[in-house]
Amino acid sequence: MSPDPQVVCYDCMIKASAEEKGISIAAAEKQRNSALRTTNLFIDHKMKEYLSFAPKSDFEDLDEVNHILKYVTNVWNTFDIKEKDRMARKKEEELIVIFENVKMNWSYLIEAPPQKRNNPCRCGSGKKYKVCCLIREENEKAELEKWKRFDSWVIRKGMALLEESEELNLVELFQFYCGKKRAAEAKRYGITEKDVEEFNEWLMNDYFAPDEQTPYVLGRLLAKNNLSGDERKLVEGRIAAPKSVYLVTFIKKGTGALLRNFFDHEEVFVYDQMMSESTQPGYAIFVRIFTAGKFHLLSGGHISYPPAYLNEKLKEILKAYRKSGRTDGVNSFLRHNGYIFGRLL
Ligand SMILES: [Zn+2]
Questions:
Q1: How far away, in angstroms, is 255 Cα from ligand 1 center?
Q2: Which of 2, 72, 164, 244 has the fewest C-beta atoms lying within 10 Å of its C-beta?
Q3: Rounded to an integer, what distance in angstroms lies between the CA atom of residue 53 and that of residue 55?
């Protein structure tokens, strides 16, 4: 609980909003109403979309409503205030078109009870579950483990390459990565394990040598040509994946979570058991997601933040992006500058 609880009445809230935006109270009230209209329309549209996906004519019970509503609200929260303002000025027909393009991962939300081995398989093949989808599920699990093993192997090769490198001055790079202030603090108080982990993650995935367009370590791993086909795919997956800011929209405990990117609104299911146990839906994380075959995996450690904490940081990132003059999207911008914001988060 806040040590200084504030009770704000509706009138005060509208007045504060008007002052902040430099508009009249009537205009602020109108803006608030159209924002509410947009939010309600989004929720309504997506709840109906879920019912037609399920498919069913109505929700089973209040728990199901809450479950779906929580997901829909989390997805809505990945749109920043400016985007919502722009939407609030649009007509209902235009909004529906926009909302239809917000892709939802409904299938992850439908929790089917476990199947019995000798029962007819739910997929409708007419075969028993144990000789049908159970085999597919077990193959998938084995494939996921295979990709995780490849990734550990690739990381070991990358770390070995870093240790052998005579070109790199790791002390200077650490100072560059941390920034002067934190490097001085590290010198005084010692380097924490988390610092080292973050630094390695950056060195491995996001450090660019001058005038190079591919991250140093990943580029050299590819050039060495001693990778298997699948390991090569993994390295390419890492090259394509900058560290970015995601919102946890849904968690499947013990398996992974749906994460939606704040900047391009793409959403993927990430297989990471540890993260699924240690974060909450509605929280934000600054993390790298890379593809491994048909799976999405998380790179390095992660910390999750309440979204309110993150709003200011998102603003800073967007401001820096606009200032950079780049037009290739915030995620590409973060590929080269993400470490700065990694320090801020
Ligand atoms: Zn089946």
A1: 21
A2: 2
A3: 5
Express each pLDDT in 264-303 by its tens digit: 999 999 999 999 999 999 999 999 999 999 999 999 888 8
**How many CA atoms are closer than 13 Å to the CA of 333, on its beta-carbon side?**
20
Instruction: Tell me 112's DSSP state.
Output: P
**pLDDT tens, residue by residue, 212-267:** 999 999 999 999 878 899 999 999 999 999 999 999 999 999 999 999 999 999 99
pTM for the full predicted model? 0.88
Between the CA of 84 and the centroid of ligand 1 the distance, in Å, is 42
**206 within 8 A of 286, measured Cβ to Cβ:** no
Ligand 1 centroid–CA 131 distance in Å is 8
Separation between Cα atoms, residue 165 and residue 83, nearest integer Å: 45
Ligand 1 centroid to residue 110 C-alpha, Å: 17
Q: How far is the CA of 54 from the centre of ligand 1 (A)?
A: 18
Which of 43, 152, 54 lies closest to 95 in space, CA to CA? 43
On whether the CB atoms of residues 35 and 84 are closer than 8 A, the answer is: yes
Helix axes 307-324, 330-344, angle to 10 degrees: 130
Q: Give the tens place of pLDDT for each residue, 48-66.
A: 999 999 999 999 999 999 9
The pLDDT, as a whole number, for residue 3 is 46
Distance 178 CA to ligand 1 centre (A): 52
- Ligand 1 centroid to residue 52 C-alpha, Å: 23
Q: How many angstroms separate the alpha carbon of residue 212 from the centre of ligand 1? A: 49
C-alpha 135 – ligand 1 centre gap (Å): 9
